Amino acid sequence: MPVSWNELIAKAIGPEGLKADGQLTLPRSYGVYEIKGAKQDTIYRQGNYPGRLREIQKEFPEAALKYLFSSKEDAVQVAAILNSKDKNTVPERISRRTSIPSSPKSTISGQSIVHPSKILVELFVHKPYQGVAPERSRFLFIGLDANYDVDIEKISIFPKVLEYHEDAEKFWHAHEVHHPFLLSEYQGDGKRYHQNFERIGFGAEHANLISFVELFHLPTVGRNKLSVEDLDATHLKRLNQAILEGDATHIFITPTVASLMRSSGAFNWLPSKSIDTADVLPVLFRNSNKTVYSLLHFSSYGKYYRKLHLQIEEIRKLIAQFQI
After folding, report:
1. What is the pLDDT of residues 211-236, one digit of tens each?
2. Count of other CB atoms within 10 angstroms of residue 294
3. CB atoms within 10 A of CB 51
């Protein structure tokens, strides 16, 4: 069960009694590191002690140990909580950094579509994607929004969700699945999506090739029907540049996402219909070094599942092009 801030901090330990073991300690310990002045804000990172601290200090010499824990999950959660705290509220920070209202309303429920978890929102403010940065990816999967259960903070898997958003590559190698929703302890919404993605055949060795990024740049809650007015122009500009100028050679977009991208006016290269429908994966755009495909949503079922299965098989064939 989730614990309070005071209960988390009560778990902090001191370095006394820990034995050096190269870049690690015996027993293993995990620090939360304070970086003052990084990008004009104090930010916090976490990782193995003292190895991770030494890595951070190469870039930020003033970085220092803030808390030390015997549990990695505790360090991940404390770092995320500290990053969510600011003299301004999270909605104010979002409003300051983006050009859209901080809490657009759902046309279905009339409620805010932005998830109420300040911790989760702050993670997306710092990193509005999952996996590697979209500019660095070779396989780029573009979705509509990252939707989470309203009570995600109360679910036992929440520390794993934070760990994943902090560093998806490390998460994949540590847990041998690409997303926390695939862990046995989670049985909620979103599991089917990631189970189907898993069938492609990517492994942890491909973790540095894959990025998931959504049109809406913040985590959402509930049933929503996004409109162009909900989208952030700066985020769309970055996404467009990642597609056209980034390293991705294979980019996948669902029909619903493609429709909203066209309506936004931010993706002038995107045609009104596929330019090649002969293959299982229709092609929306192609140049000398990249291809944009139309892909069914990974949660598709019923009459669409057969086609999705065939598309998954085609994506699997693309993996062989990359030497790992």
Report:
1. 999 999 999 988 778 899 999 999 99
2. 19
3. 15
Question: At 292, is the secondary structure helix, strand, or coil?
Answer: strand
Tell me the residue type at 15. Answer: P
Domain assignment of residue 205, given as a range: 90-319
Cα separations in angstroms, 242 against 17, 107, 130, 143, 213? 47, 30, 14, 14, 10
Among 38, 55, 84, which residue terminates a domain?
Answer: 84
d(CA 93, CA 64): 25
3-state helix, strand, coil in the chain (%, to 5): 40, 20, 40
Q: What is the pLDDT of residue 142?
A: 97
Q: SS3 for 43?
A: strand
Burial of 59 (0-12, 13-18, 19+ CB in 10 A): exposed
What is the pTM for the complete model shown? Answer: 0.71
For the chain, the domain total comes to: 2
Report the share of the chain in percent with pLDDT over 70: 88
Task: Tell me which amino acid residue 20 is.
Answer: A
Measure Cα distances from 307 to 253, 266, 272, 285 in Å: 15, 29, 22, 20
d(CA 232, CA 196) in angstroms, rounded, equals 29
Q: Identify the burial level of 144 via C-beta atoms within 10 angstroms of its C-beta, where 0-12 means exposed, 13-18 middle and 19 or more buried.
A: middle
The CATH number given to whatever domain includes residue 195 is 3.40.470
